[in-house]
Write a structure and sequence with these properties.
Layout (H helix, E strand, L loop, with lengths): L10 E6 L6 H4 L3 E3 L21 E2 L10 E19 L8 E7 L11 E2 L4 E2 L7 E7 L5 E10 L10 E12 L2
Antiparallel strand pairs: 1-10, 2-4, 3-10, 4-8, 4-9, 4-10, 5-6, 5-7, 5-9
């Protein structure tokens, strides 16, 4: 049984990550520090199509690789959904981080907004959802890989889809 509770909040208007048709549309929004190939660019994880994906370069060490999205405006109470590949062998671990700055570069300061998530083993592609409700606002979010990946494979870690729904502060 699902219980629906309506709560009056100081937040308004849900904002959702965009769906991109190409790399130009995604410029400045979807970002990653590792890309396997041209057909596995970061924007592919935000295109609304589970037959495309973002994937890291093919190395056994996936620690420190990330995929993220920049709203360029502060959002609160984010809900992050990830559709993950069943091929992420080993024991994939990651955490979700937020950045208060709208400018993302190598000097950006990231704050952990989730505990370490250890996926364990699973046999099919699946979607997992995580909530960020710490009361702070962030302009960008990323999934930071800590372990796992496709060890012994020619591919890196893969995320088929990522969506982030957040709320803006009422004026």
């Amino acid at each position: 049984m699902v219980q629906i509770i309506r709560v009056r909040s100081k937040y308004k208007t849900s904002r959702l990550t965009g769906f991109f048709a190409n790399a130009e549309e995604a410029q400045g929004y979807a970002f990653a520090n590792s890309i396997y190939s041209d057909d596995r660019q970061p924007w592919r994880a935000f295109d609304g199509n589970t037959s495309t994906l973002w994937s890291t370069e093919s190395t056994d060490n996936q620690d420190g690789k990330y995929l993220g999205y920049n709203f360029h405006d502060v959002v609160y109470e984010a809900i992050i959904s990830l559709t993950l590949s069943a091929d992420n062998a080993g024991t994939p671990k990651f955490k979700i981080q937020g950045c208060e700055s709208a400018t993302i570069d190598e000097n950006s300061v990231w704050e952990d907004v989730s505990d370490v998530v250890e996926l364990g083993s699973y046999e099919s592609t699946q979607t997992r959802t995580y909530s960020v409700t710490n009361g702070k606002g962030y302009c960008a979010f990323r999934v930071l890989l800590l372990a796992g990946g496709r060890q012994g494979s020619t591919y890196g870690w893969a995320i088929y889809e990522m969506s982030i729904k957040g709320k803006e502060m009422e004026g």
